[in-house]
Design goal:
Strand order of the largest sheet: 6-7-8-3-9-10
Largest sheet: 6 strands, mixed
Number of strands: 10
Distance between the termini: 37 Å
Helix content: 25-40%
Shape: globular
Number of helices: 10
Length: 257
């Protein structure tokens, strides 16, 4: 595995019944980058994320994460690797019966031997880190706005100080101001913590604002490049996506048209 990569996918095949989603897909994710993942409906953006983190079993291919074959790890080795990444699912996936602080503390109690008072203090630190007020600690998910639930989910993803953070549609359902604020939060945390971010999104503003490279799922495979490189690609879907009206508006709003 190239030491500059934190994830390497080779020859990935995902298939459900007779429907082949990915057919020999290759992807490198560089250490310390924000990689956006986009594609049309049914191209398997979230399937790719879930396959890399082990929630979906691929039909074929190799997946190396942080120098280890994530598909074949078991027991202690699998748990050790699991601690090195965090995941924010689209709906936050918070436990509804637990407060925000308790949600964030769950993984710390499961994976560390820290005393309870230290875990509570660290959970509050993570809550502050994502820009939530202290009174959110005692709130239940149902008592939070959509934007606050996203931030609480991000705090839980950061609970174990991961090296990689996987984000599945992090700005979905947020208003434009809330989405822009969340973009800034992701980029600030990535820079301050030295994270690698793997972000599935359909949000063109997010892609232009914070990604270093973008992986586009087309024709059951993947094309990777910067925004400017992809705008020059002649694939019809990529042209429509990046150079269509919404793409041009996103570029203009970030001074890149």
């Amino acid at each position: 595995m190239d030491p500059g990569n934190v994830i390497e996918v080779r020859g990935l095949v995902n298939q459900f019944g007779t429907n082949r989603i990915h057919d020999g897909l290759d992807l490198d994710v560089h250490k310390g980058e924000v990689l956006g993942v986009v594609g049309g409906s049914g191209t398997g953006k979230s399937v790719l994320l879930r396959t890399i983190i082990g929630l979906n079993r691929a039909r074929d291919g190799e997946i190396m994460v942080l120098g280890q074959d994530s598909r074949n790890l078991k027991g202690r080795e699998a748990r050790r690797l699991l601690r090195r990444w965090g995941v924010l699912f689209q709906d936050g996936a918070l436990f509804s019966s637990l407060t925000v602080e308790q949600n964030i503390a769950v993984s710390m109690r499961e994976h560390t031997r820290l005393p309870g008072h230290a875990i509570n203090r660290l959970a509050r630190l993570k809550i502050d880190m994502v820009g939530l007020p202290l009174h959110a600690c005692s709130k239940y998910p149902s008592e939070l706005s959509g934007g606050m639930r996203k931030r609480a989910g991000l705090a839980r993803a950061l609970a174990l100080d991961p090296e990689i953070v996987f984000l599945d549609e992090p700005t979905a359902g947020l208003d434009p101001i809330g989405a822009a604020d969340f973009d800034i939060l992701i980029r600030d945390l990535q820079r301050s913590l030295g994270l690698t971010v793997f972000m599935v999104t359909h949000d063109l503003d997010s892609l232009v604002a914070i990604t270093d490279r973008i992986a586009v799922l087309v024709d059951r495979k993947i094309k990777v490049g910067t925004v400017d490189e992809l705008r020059m690609d002649d694939h019809p879907w990529i042209q429509d996506y990046f150079n269509g009206p919404r793409g041009r508006a996103a570029m203009a709003s970030h001074g890149r048209d």
